[in-house]
């Protein structure tokens, strides 16, 4: 009857850890440089990192600031407080590619312009989710927003590592189904 | 010994499609000694190949060739290239179906007579009735091993069913049980009993659910009279100067165009591909497509008045565990116009896994209103509405400007709800919500219809040639050796899941075709 508990997310792959050639981007260095930052932090060329340095994401084509905006946007579109940023980063990392660059350049610029029109410096620096949502609503009908949102439906929710956070157990065939494992174990009716 | 027939063999019956209609017809004819070539656009997948992962399975099995959509139905906006969630594989959508196997009610065979004229609807009586179909339903239930028919017991209820049943009883519903299902409650026909694994929609890895892919198809092949050519996409049906069909052109697995001669052609590609093929087969003799003298090919598309109700409770349900659809309330299936609509609907248990719930709970929605629903996924129960929708002339399949990978115009599927459909859906939403609230639901979600799984009516059966496409045997009014053998021949949709009726019609049609072949009339 027991079902599996939430596992720690595996961020080894496809989020790449800094290699030895990237001196200054060790966990400790990231921690120091990201210190006191509230949100995702741009750390050095081509990297963004979580404030607690639990993960970092290298970008090669788009700018780290753009990736930071995409990660924040992903969370604001489908906010789940128990899902770590790393999963949102995985869901949008595909935008770091040559064929997505124009979409990202234009889209993030429009996102920041919408933020500025509402009196903010830019999108990522807005402190309250409710205020960021108002900015997103201003661009909701754009192909950029719709592309990012639609991509997240599979990009986020089809990551098997987040399923336990929702209680979802995935396949059961390998364990013989639920015929002896609680298909009818509801006890509160 | 699996048969192999020559392309030039004009004594064979060619069947296009191998699902509930074509797959069953192929086997039934083969059992009677009739030589059959079945052309299947998809590949062959068996239980060991099925994938218990929603998106991976979807990529493996779903028909993903291009289609286009139009009309006011929400599917055209949210899933514009995916009007239906049906299968491209040997066995067709019998790999994906949930297994619900219920007979039409007697009054539903005569919708026009019993409901009267409904403005904007194109209702018609079937040229057959419940008495005519009863023995064929008996055979279909035996073939499929339907629970609660014969001496087969019902399936046990899972968590989702228990919530559903308690809510239904609280509302005073009487016809509430775990369904008549083509899923074994005990071993049957050499197949295992249900192991309560879930993922019924992704192909049953135990083979406990009936699918033509691993029952009728291999049984037919074992006779030596059936050759199934998979990954063979039929482009057009050919005819001679007298107007008789003579064979089909198809693209084989390597993309080469082949021509198979035939004595009889049976179209069973579902309610999109069957009319599309007839329309794409137009010629100087039949400029509007084959079998289309009435102009009814592609018209009167029906998809059932569907929708779902999901509900969140303060404690876990884990609805995904066990059989996906073993639960039904039939009290609302009656025809009772005092409810504000004609016809009726069934309520059936349903669950989706988390990935599909994210895609289908409220397509396009975002923000906390949506995500807090998913946060409670473990505490969710769900049901599906299946009701009779109105045939309407303008709903249906036409040839699109878009071409497929073979350069053939694809099906454009147009659909607008009829006011009767909307009234019925709203009634069903209210009842579903009331059921769950009676069990303590803290939040409910009247969920929009998914891409269609019940696709019906685009080559409908009619007494008079001017009202439809085929006669009471599924035989084209216009071309004696051309048959339609799938759900597209439905005159009206009734409230019931259609597969059992498609299978019963296919068994009956096989009997007719074999008899007429013996008599030399076709």
TrEMBL record, chain A:
Does the keyword section mention Transmembrane? yes
Residues spanning the membrane:
34-57
Superkingdom is: Bacteria
Keywords carried by this UniProt record = Membrane, Transmembrane, Transmembrane helix
Query: Among its keywords, does the record have Transmembrane?
Result: yes
For the region Disordered, what residue ranges are annotated?
Answer: 1-20
Q: Which InterPro entries match?
A: TAT_signal (IPR006311)
Q: What is this protein called?
A: Twin-arginine translocation pathway signal
Automatic annotation (TrEMBL), chain B:
- Which molecular function terms from Gene Ontology are attached? flavin adenine dinucleotide binding; oxidoreductase activity, acting on CH-OH group of donors
Give the Glucose-methanol-choline oxidoreductase C-terminal domain ranges: 391-506
Superkingdom, according to UniProt? Answer: Bacteria
| UniProtKB keywords | FAD, Flavoprotein, Oxidoreductase
> Does Cytoplasm show up as a keyword for this record?
no
Q: Where's the Glucose-methanol-choline oxidoreductase N-terminal domain?
A: 88-305
Name the InterPro entries for this protein: FAD/NAD-bd_sf (IPR036188), GMC_OxRdtase_N (IPR000172), GMC_OxRtase_C (IPR007867)
Q: Which family is it part of?
A: Belongs to the GMC oxidoreductase family.
Query: What is this protein's record name?
Result: 2-keto-gluconate dehydrogenase
The organism that produces this protein has a lineage beginning with: Bacteria, Pseudomonadati, Pseudomonadota, Alphaproteobacteria, Rhodobacterales
């Amino acid at each position: 009857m027991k079902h599996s508990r939430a596992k720690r997310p595996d961020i080894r792959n496809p989020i790449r850890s800094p290699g030895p050639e990237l001196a200054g981007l060790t966990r400790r260095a990231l921690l120091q440089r990201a210190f006191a930052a509230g949100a995702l932090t741009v750390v050095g060329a081509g990297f963004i990192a979580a404030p607690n340095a639990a993960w970092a994401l290298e970008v090669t084509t788009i700018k780290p600031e753009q990736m930071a905006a995409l990660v924040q946007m992903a969370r604001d579109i489908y906010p789940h407080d128990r899902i770590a940023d790393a999963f949102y980063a995985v869901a949008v990392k595909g935008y770091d590619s040559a064929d997505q660059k124009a979409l990202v350049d234009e889209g993030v610029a429009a996102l920041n312009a919408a933020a500025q029109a509402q009196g903010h410096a830019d999108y990522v620096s807005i402190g309250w989710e409710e205020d960021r949502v108002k900015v997103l609503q201003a661009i909701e009908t754009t192909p950029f927003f719709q592309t990012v949102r639609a991509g997240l439906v599979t990009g986020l929710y089809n990551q098997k590592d987040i399923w336990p956070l929702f209680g979802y157990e995935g396949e059961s065939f390998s364990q013989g189904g639920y015929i002896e494992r609680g298909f009818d174990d509801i006890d509160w009716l | 010994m699996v048969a192999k027939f020559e392309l030039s063999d004009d004594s064979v019956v060619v069947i296009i499609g191998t699902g509930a209609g074509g797959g069953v017809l192929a086997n039934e004819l083969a059992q009677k000694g009739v030589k059959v070539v079945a052309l299947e656009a998809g590949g062959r997948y068996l239980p060991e190949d099925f994938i218990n992962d929603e998106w991976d399975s979807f990529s493996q099995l779903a028909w993903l060739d291009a289609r286009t959509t139009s009309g006011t139905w929400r599917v055209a906006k949210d899933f514009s290239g995916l009007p239906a969630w049906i299968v491209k594989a040997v066995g067709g959508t019998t790999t994906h179906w949930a297994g619900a196997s219920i007979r039409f009610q007697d009054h539903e065979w005569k919708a026009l007579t019993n409901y009267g004229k409904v403005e904007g609807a194109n209702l018609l009586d079937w040229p057959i009735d419940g008495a005519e179909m009863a023995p064929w339903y008996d055979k279909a239930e035996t073939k499929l091993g339907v629970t609660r028919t014969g001496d087969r017991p019902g399936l046990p209820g899972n968590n989702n069913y228990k919530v559903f049943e308690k809510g239904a009883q609280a509302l005073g519903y009487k016809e509430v049980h775990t369904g008549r299902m083509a899923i074994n409650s005990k071993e049957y026909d050499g197949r295992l009993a249900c192991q309560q694994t879930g993922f019924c929609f992704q192909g049953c890895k135990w083979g406990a659910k009936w699918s033509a892919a691993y029952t009728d198809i291999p049984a037919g092949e074992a006779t030596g009279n059936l050759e199934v050519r998979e990954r063979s996409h039929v482009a057009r049906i050919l005819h001679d100067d007298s107007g008789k069909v003579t064979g089909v052109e198809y693209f084989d697995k390597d993309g080469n165009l082949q021509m198979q001669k035939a004595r009889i052609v049976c179209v069973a590609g579902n309610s999109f591909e069957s009319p599309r093929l007839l329309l794409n087969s137009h010629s100087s003799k039949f400029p509007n497509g084959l079998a289309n003298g009435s102009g009814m090919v592609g018209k009167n598309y029906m998809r059932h008045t569907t929708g779902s109700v999901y509900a969140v409770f303060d404690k876990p349900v884990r609805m995904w565990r066990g059989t996906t659809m073993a639960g039904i309330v039939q009290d609302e299936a009656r025809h009772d116009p005092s409810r504000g609509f004609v016809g009726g609907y069934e309520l059936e248990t349903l669950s989706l896994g988390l990935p599909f719930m994210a895609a289908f709970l409220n397509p396009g929605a975002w923000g906390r209103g949506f995500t807090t629903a998913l946060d409670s996924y473990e505490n969710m129960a769900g049901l599906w509405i299946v009701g009779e929708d109105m045939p309407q002339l303008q709903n249906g399949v036409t040839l699109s400007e878009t071409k497929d990978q073979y350069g053939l115009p694809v099906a454009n599927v147009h659909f607008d709800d009829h006011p009767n459909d909307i009234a019925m859906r709203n009634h069903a939403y209210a009842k579903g919500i009331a059921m769950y609230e009676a069990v303590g639901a803290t939040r409910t979600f009247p969920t929009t219809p998914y891409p269609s799984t019940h696709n019906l009516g685009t080559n409908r059966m009619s007494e008079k040639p001017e009202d439809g496409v085929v006669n009471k045997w599924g035989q084209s009014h216009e071309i004696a050796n051309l048959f339609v053998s799938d759900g597209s021949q439905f005159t009206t949709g009734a409230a019931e899941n259609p597969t059992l009726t498609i299978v019963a019609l296919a068994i009956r049609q096989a009997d007719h075709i074999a008899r007429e072949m013996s008599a030399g009339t076709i």
